[in-house]
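Sequence only, no structure available. Ideas?
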Amino acid sequence: MLQTLPIPATQTSDLSDIVAKVDAGERLSYDDGLRLFRSNDLLTVGQLANQVNTRINGDKYVYFNQNRHINPTNVCAFHCNFCSFAKFKEDTPGAYTWTPEQIVERIRPDVHNRVTEFHIVGGLHPTLGFDYYVDILRALKKEYPWVHLKAFTGVEIDFFAQLTGKDHRTVLEELIEAGLGSMPGGGAEIFHPDIRNKICPEKADAATWLAIHGIAHDLGLHTNATMLYGHIESYEHRVDHLIRLREQQDRSGGFNTFIPLRYHPENNNLGRRLDWTTAHDTLKTIAVSRILLDNFPHVKAYWIMLTPPIAQLALHFGADDIDGTVVEEKIYHDAGATTEEQLDKFDLLRLIKAVGKTPVERDTLYNVIEIYDQPIETYAPDSRKTRRGEVKITHIELN
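Reply:
I predicted one. Tokens follow.
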């Protein structure tokens, strides 16, 4: 005779005081964040994150954009243990460096009037100099003046300062003059020195990374922030990272979006001891990030790193953005990503609508371009090309 096993009691009671704080709109502490990470009650953590996201963004809209990633070179002066993208010499097999003119021509087939962003990050080339990076911005802005240039991480800005002997503010001012519109959030990795010194000792430290973003905010730039999770860090290191970001946002207020970056273990020195991060950990990390970062407007489920199915699930665990069309992505595919390098607009609409949300096409700064609130058949693939028209930005308050 089969024995009926008791259904395990929910762990909600273990989090009851945190639930009460979230219900009241109170800020959570470091210890609260650590308890959320340690809890296996994923559904309760996800419900809390969804509650926070609904309070900030409503429960209906999910953002995406039509963007184009550009990685100008993979030649890099730094030797980060988790990186599978970098080549350390020009003559290393697989190394490449595109001139500004080559970049303009390479992306031409992918650029239409509805593309609103170029996302530009790459290697820290040891010999080309700062002018190479400035010239990339100038060339792109001249050829595609309507496209917003989101370029260069805080680590890249610090490298440019080292190259030139200029301070971070001057470097940023010169990049703004060349066309820089905002900054991506890469290079943050994990802030705690115990981990940072092991995985990327040559990179700008946490205080420098945060200070550069603070200067950018002071200059009127919006920026993003990231956290690389799922390698040798602990939950304590993740919470420390999130609290430092929250404190910087309190000070300077210019972060638009937080993007948890799932570590990929293939083809790098760190990965030989590690395996792929689980879906459970990914959803928990997105959820806890949304709960702790109460002063960040948006949390992104970056489909190219998570896979589209997990990115869809994340939209019920606090994320309100799924990124964009991307077109060409090298950094994470070199580390073993098996996702496509491109999703078109219809793919993104389908992914978002399938989870009961309304897709909202945005620009980099979250100005609304179009709300897709009609049935999916209205936006059939065969009609996509006819929808490419002049971008008309409409500022819509989403409550």
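Residues 1-12, 328-341, 382-399 have pLDDT under 50 and may be disordered.
Hope that gets you unstuck.
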